[in-house]
TrEMBL record:
Pfam families: TPR_12 (PF13424). Keywords: Coiled coil, TPR repeat. The gene is LOC110771014. SMART domains: TPR. TPR repeats lie at residues 205-238. Residues 530-557 form a coiled coil. Gene3D superfamilies: Tetratricopeptide repeat domain (1.25.40.10). This is Kinesin light chain 3 isoform X2. It comes from the Eukaryota. The keyword Coiled coil applies. It comes from Prunus avium. InterPro entries: TPR-like_helical_dom_sf, TPR_rpt.
Length: 559
């Protein structure tokens, strides 16, 4: 309860919403937005690969497409919702009040007999929605433009149905990343709703929530924060502090504050949004689990491993109860807990969990699925950490752990290589039609795993040489050098083939490999050893500097 009150107080303190005048499709409109614009373009820095559930805030198609005798409706949740023939009681009165003024005849159920323009609006909206869902965006755009025009002529320039049409078209432009076209439409929709229902109406609050989602996609964090705060204030007044829709906006505001580096306020909001769901009997819902995952990630990034472990154990308990171990969702959750335990030094439990995950994946997935290769990579890393702990106690056991890790890494490499080859064959088959997004994503995952496995194999060879107390430490470790050179050649081969060099997670793994190779060869001090290496150290340094510049925080901030 304290956190809830603190969150409410936070919103009260922060609400200072100066007006901002913008040019929109209906003229100059003044709406309460921040007058200061801040831009933050960020990305996740290089981290060990782990699977995540596909809960993304980057596709917030949250307004309803309307059809039939529909009053304007705005979805409150952040999930994608497409409307059917629906209406809302709170807006039906507003619709019928203006009917006579527009020359439309009312009937007993409160709906309005259509004129030619409103009929066309319904048809264009329905057809545009269907085309949108089919991915035919160019055709859908033409129909949504026609629907907007018919709504204006049939209902009036400032009618809520026009706000609906504006929003539908704005959503299409957002999906097409035509942000400069989408924003004025979103703002027009809000302006019309404020005129129709008042600035504190729940539909206005939902519209501001949606606009916040639009800004988050563009990494306009300050604008998103202002929109979410406005939405939260309205929802608090209309719905109350214990409503799940209030908690939804609270969670999204918490995400924005986290990305802005305001950790304390962010955590209070996210924790309270989780608590509201739990108090409402939704503690095991997908929505609640999603928020707990995000909270665990925050704890991990700030190295608060004990708190992260506690949250992740809670999530795993929910997944075991609701889905069992015959679900990949449970496996992925358990793997996440294992990685946290690995980071905190609880290697035995981490290894046991990863082994159980591997057994489950071998049952649920094809033999050479990339998730199996990733799982093996995690197990190999735990074995290498075990070896590091054993080297001061029993060298022979430490070497045995390294040999075990080497065998597992080689199998992980085989699976990742197989997955890459398969993706390349598929890419060549569809090349004339353009690359598939799914293939590109799967390819990047497999490539990251392969680069990490080669890099780990190189480090393993170095560690093994140290344990075996090589007599000639000046000479480069050929086994380690071979692994690192394979990492580099793999990057150059596949990145050229698939044109994915722009993805930072791939570049980050390549950079780590280059640094390890430079360190390995930099230890060579004699002229003979320098001549024996197969790399040019100056070329390595130049490549490292180039990549560091590309991945520097000044050019790419963490998301």
């Amino acid at each position: 309860m304290f956190l809830r009150q603190a969150a409410a107080n936070l919103i009260k303190r922060r609400f200072r919403l100066p007006s901002r005048t913008v040019s929109s499709t209906s003229g100059t409109t003044t709406i309460p937005l921040s007058s200061r614009t801040k831009f933050s373009y960020q990305y996740h820095g290089p981290k060990d690969f782990s699977w995540r559930m596909n809960y993304s805030h980057r596709d917030p198609r949250v307004w309803l497409f309307l059809s039939g005798n529909a009053a304007i409706i705005f979805a409150i949740h952040s999930n994608t919702v497409l409307a059917k023939d629906v209406s809302i009681e709170s807006s039906a009165e507003n619709d019928t009040e203006g009917a006579e003024a527009m020359g439309l005849r009312k009937i007993e159920d409160g709906s309005v007999i259509s004129n030619i323009h409103t009929s066309k609006w319904r048809v264009f909206t329905d057809k545009g929605r269907d085309l949108f869902l089919q991915g035919k965006l160019e055709e859908a755009e033409k129909l949504f433009l026609l629907a907007l025009q018919e709504a204006k002529e049939g209902f009036g320039e400032r009618d809520p149905h026009v706000a609906s049409a504006c929003n539908n078209l704005a959503e299409l432009y957002r999906v097409n990343k035509a942000y400069n076209k989408a924003e004025p439409l979103y703002l027009d929709a809000i302006s019309i709703l404020e005129e129709s229902f008042g600035p504190e109406d729940i539909r206005v609050g939902s519209a501001f929530h949606n606009l916040g989602q639009f800004y988050i996609v563009q990494r306009k964090l300050e604008e998103a924060r202002v929109c979410y705060e406005r939405a939260l204030k309205i929802k608090a007044r209309v719905l109350g502090l214990n409503h799940t829709d209030y908690a939804d906006t609270m969670y999204h505001l918490g995400m924005v504050l986290h990305l802005q580096g305001k950790g304390k306020d962010s955590e209070a909001l996210i924790q309270d949004s989780i608590r509201i769901l739990e108090d409402g009997g939704q503690g095991e819902s997908i929505m609640c689990v999603k928020r707990m995952r995000y909270l665990a990630q925050i704890y991990m990034k700030s190295n608060r491993l004990e708190e992260a472990e506690k949250v992740q154990r809670k999530i795993l308990h929910i997944m075991e109860l609701t889905k069992g171990w015959n679900s990949l969702d449970t496996v992925i959750t358990a793997e996440g807990l294992a990685l946290i335990l690995q980071s905190s030094g609880s290697l035995k439990e981490a290894e046991e969990l990863l082994e159980r995950c591997l057994d489950a994946r071998k049952t649920l997935l094809p033999e050479d699925h990339i998730q199996i290769g990733a799982n093996m990579l995690h197990i190999a890393r735990v074995a290498m950490l075990n070896s590091n702990q054993l080297k001061k106690v029993d060298t022979s056991k430490a070497i045995c752990e390294l040999e075990k890790a080497r065998d597992i890494l080689n199998e992980s490499i085989r699976i990742a290589q197989s997955s890459l080859d398969k993706s390349m064959r598929q890419n060549r088959k569809i090349h004339s039609y353009g690359a598939s997004g799914d293939i590109g994503k799967n390819f990047r995952v497999a490539l990251v795993i392969l680069l990490q496995a080669f890099d780990a194999l190189g480090l393993l060879a170095i560690t093994k040489q140290e344990l075996e107390e090589s007599k000639d430490e000046c000479l480069p470790n050929s086994e380690a050098e071979n692994a690192l050179l394979r990492c580099i050649s793999t990057y150059k081969e596949f990145v050229t083939e698939m044109s994915i060099a722009e993805f930072p997670e791939v570049k980050a793994e390549y950079l780590k490999c280059l640094k390890h190779l430079l360190s390995l060869n930099g230890k060579s001090t004699t002229q003979t050893s320098q001549q024996s290496t197969r790399v040019n150290l100056q070329d390595l340094r130049d490549e490292i500097k180039r990549l560091e510049l590309q991945l520097s925080p000044s050019r790419n901030r963490k998301i």
